[in-house]
Amino acid sequence: MKHAKPDQLCASIALALLLAAGPAAAADTGAEPAGDQGQAASPSVTQLDSVEVTARGIRETLQKTPLPVTAISEEAIERRGLVDLRDVANMTPGFSFRSTFGRYQDAPVIRGMSNMSPPASNDINTNASLFIDGIYVNGDMSSFGLENIAQVEVLRGPQAAAFGRSTFAGAVNYITRRPGSAPGGKLTLGAGNHGQEKLGIYYSGGTEDGRFGYEASVNKRGNDSLFYNAASGRKDLGGSETLSAMGAIAWSPTDNLDIVARVSRQKTRDEHVAITLIGSDKNNCYLPTPTPNPNDPPNYMVSRTKGYYCGTLPLPEEWRIYTDGFLAKGLMPGLKSDATRTSVKIDYNFDNGWLLSAITGINRQERYSALDQSYDAVPALIVPAGPVNITVPGALQTFGLNRSKDWSQGLRLSSDQERDLAGLIGAYYYQAEGLPGYTGDLGTGVPVPSDPGNKTVNRAVYGQLRWHINDKWTTSLEARYAEDELSLNGSNSAVVSGIAYTRNYTASAKYYSFTPRWTLSYQATENVNLFGLVSKGNKPGGFNTFAYDARLTDQASADLIAQGLNKVHEEEVTNYELGIKSDWLDNTLRLNANVYQIDWENQGLTVSGTAYQRNGTPYVNTYTVNVGETRIRGFELEGQWAFAPGWLASVVYAFTDSEIQKFYSADQADLLSDASNPNPNASSPLANVAGHKSPFVPRNKLTVGLAYAGELSNGWGYDANWDTTYEGARYIQVHNLAKFGASTLSNLRLSLTPNESWRISAYVTNVFDDDTPQGGLRYLSFTAPRIMVPNAAPATGYSSVQQRDFGISAPMPRMFGVEVNYRF
Question: What is the CATH number of the domain that holds 456?
Answer without folding.
Answer: 2.40.170.20
